[in-house]
Amino acid sequence: MRLSAEDKLEIHEVIALHGHLCDAEAYDRFDEVFAPDLEVDASALGLAPLPPRDPSRPWLETYIAVAHERGAGSTVAMHVTSIIVRADGEAGARAWSKGFTVAPDGTIASYTYEDRLVRAAGGWRIRHRTIAPRRTPGGGAEPLARH
């Protein structure tokens, strides 16, 4: 599959929307960003895994509950930048981006997001997200491979 310019723009906007929704504490709008069968791997951050999947409760719902639990005040702002998008198979896309958060005390944390996206009825949605901290220089060259 080849991604159109419109596909890539929509994917960029979906990824950016996540930060805006987090900053606004609009977690109940996460369905505009994530697929209902969302899987998140944040183990590299040392975060406890999300509760085991309950067939009656999609992970997206669980992810929203975790965001509410963290509550206001955990960050001042969440930013995303340097988004790279590539086709992935016949019906999907992959995206790599850099994220950083600013804490109330002014400290900054940097992350790398690796997303797998699917086209849904409402547009592109993230189905799988891997979040890794950026603590040392170098690495992360996979999306830079020549195509």
Automatic annotation (TrEMBL):
Domain annotation SnoaL-like: ranges: 5-130
Q: Which Pfam families match?
A: SnoaL_4 (PF13577)
Query: What is the protein name stated in its UniProt record?
Result: SnoaL-like domain-containing protein
Gene3D superfamilies recorded:
3.10.450.50
